[in-house]
Write a structure and sequence with these properties.
Elements: E1 3-7, E2 13-17, H1 22-31, E3 39-42, H2 48-59, E4 63-67, E5 70-74, H3 85-88, H4 97-105, E6 107-110, H5 124-132, E7 136-140, E8 143-147, E9 157-159, H6 165-176, E10 181-185, H7 191-202, E11 206-208, E12 214-218, E13 227-229, H8 234-246, E14 250-254, H9 258-271, E15 274-277, E16 281-285, E17 296-298, H10 310-318, E18 323-327, H11 337-343, E19 347-351, E20 354-358, E21 367-369, H12 373-385, E22 389-393, H13 405-411, E23 415-419
The structure holds uridine-diphosphate-N-acetylglucosamine and phosphoenolpyruvate.
Uridine-diphosphate-N-acetylglucosamine binds at residues 23, 26, 92-93, 120-126, 162, 164-167, 188, 307-308, 330-331.
Length: 433
């Protein structure tokens, strides 16, 4: 895999436009299968996971064309419900194809999905939801066959044991074309769920209550095409906000939805960072400011602090004055960045699901490894604030969720190079190549 070589300690300055959200693009691409006409989705980021989703849709008989006008998806001639194991393993979102395809084909054959290695990630809630809608599930070894009932899915009351994002999406898509009404209690409330509801409604569906305690879906048998722009990526925006805060810089992010990043903004303000919102942009300034630790932060389902920002927040905490306690409540194995941050000189102790971070005056560059997407992003942030040169290996993980990360950071004045795999890297504080 390629590497990033970052020479840290430079202040950042300038503007970056935030691209469309990965976690919206993936379910929306899947949901385009619901339509009986061509669909256009705009601002779909060019990411590894998006390319994997395109491969799946193509494998099933659909066509996807990317142009300056957005992504055109045509699944009118979709003819297969089998997703090969290799494609299932490429990402977590491969599983959300099930909900969109089950009404069209009548069955779907999959295997457990891949995704970031951040702990146990079962799909029991997805399968329970399908069963409630009338599906039969057959599991043998690694193969899962989901079969729709003969006369189609029927709306149902579904109470999720946990507000799982993926399970909520799968049930919403399957219920969108089921007969009658489905009510989802305890659904996920993330902005990406609201985006999916808006998209299904743009196809002619009827989804109400997304973002609240109960989602109600009136099934519609047929759905039309649409032209839809996805929401900006709040996790990418938050990552840049923390990059600015770590490097004690002033940067502006355009194409943001202020509401989606308000929680992080409030936290940064408490730490001493200035945050100024415009209608669709945000400027953060940490220039010449004394930045203190975020103290206690616990990840929670939305509107709580997002687990996908935890590694980056932990990296930021290393550069603050005082001690932070960061508790991970969503995934049971999401501290893979900790040993890598320690290699840079960070002072972090982990007990059960809480990391105690003691701010240090300086981190020093060395060779570290990105183990998953956000852990990798956290290492990039730490490297930007560290003294000397840091080499981050296995950056493919980072490129699952960040389009042109290095180019954007370069445009802000960061000293970052991308080194293709197999090219030998010599590490020295004057020059990295
Ligand atoms: C592509 C995408 O949108 N990924 C996001 C989605 O992942 P994903 O949809 O996989 O996350 P979930 O909300 O489903 O998972 C949250 C928790 O529920 C558990 N669980 C989930 C499903 C299930 O059937 N059984 C079960 O026990 C998981 O193990 C985890 O502990 O939401 C996560 C939580 O915000 C984010 O970190 C991911 O970036
Ligand atoms: C965990 C993540 O993604 P996925 O669910 O696709 O693995 C993430 O985006 O941080």
């Amino acid at each position: 895999m390629d590497k990033f070589v970052i020479s840290g300690w430079d202040q950042l300055n300038g503007k970056v436009r935030i691209h469309g959200a990965k976690n919206s693009a993936l379910p929306l691409l899947a949901a385009s299968i619901l339509a009986e006409e061509k669909v256009v989705i705009r601002d779909v980021p060019n990411l590894r996971d998006v390319r994997a989703m395109v491969k799946i849709i193509t494998e099933l008989g659909g066509t996807v064309i990317r142009s300056s006008e957005g992504m055109q998806i045509n699944t009118v001639h979709l003819n297969s419900g089998t997703i090969p194991k290799k494609l299932m393993q490429e990402m977590r979102s491969s599983i959300v194809i099930c909900g969109s395809i089950i009404n069209k084909i009548g069955w779907v054959k999959v295997s457990p999905p891949g995704g970031c290695a951040i702990g146990n990630r079962p799909i029991d809630l997805h399968l329970k939801g399908f069963k409630k809608l009338g599906c039969e599930i057959f599991e043998k070894n690694d193969e899962i066959l989901i079969k729709a009932p003969k006369h189609g899915l029927k709306g149902a009351k579904i109470e999720l044991d946990y507000p799982s994002v993926g399970a909520t999406e799968n049930v919403m898509m399957a219920a969108a074309q089921a007969k009658g009404t489905t009510e989802i209690y305890n659904p996920a409330k993330e902005p990406e769920i609201q985006d999916l509801a808006n998209f299904i409604n743009a196809l002619g569906g009827n989804v109400k209550g997304a973002g609240t305690e109960k989602i109600t879906i009136e099934g519609k048998q047929s759905m039309q095409g649409t032209d839809y722009r996805i929401i900006p990526d709040r996790i990418v925006a938050g990552t840049y906000m923390l990059a600015g805060a770590i490097t004690r810089s002033e940067i502006t992010l355009t194409n943001v939805v202020p509401e989606h990043i308000r929680g992080l903004a409030n936290l940064l303000e408490q730490c001493g960072v200035q945050v100024i919102f415009g209608e669709k942009n945000v400027t953060i300034s940490a220039k010449n400011r004394n930045i203190v630790s975020p103290k206690h932060v616990t990840t929670q389902p939305y509107p709580g602090f997002p687990t996908d920002m935890q590694p980056q927040l932990l990296a930021f905490s290393c550069f603050t004055e005082g001690t932070s306690f960061i508790t991970e409540k969503i995934f049971d194995g999401r501290f893979n960045h900790v040993p890598e941050l320690r290699k840079l000189g960070a002072k972090i102790e982990v007990k059960k699901q809480t990391a105690k971070v003691t701010g240090v005056s300086v981190l020093s560059g060395t060779v570290v490894e990105a183990t998953d997407l956000r852990a990798g992003a956290a290492l990039v942030l730490a490297a930007l604030g560290a003294e000397g040169v840091t080499v981050i290996e296995n950056i493919d993980h980072i490129e699952r969720g960040h389009e042109s990360f290095d180019e954007d950071l370069k445009s802000l004045g960061a000293n970052i190079l991308r080194i293709p795999k197999n090219q030998i890297t010599h590490l020295s504080n004057e020059n990295a190549y």
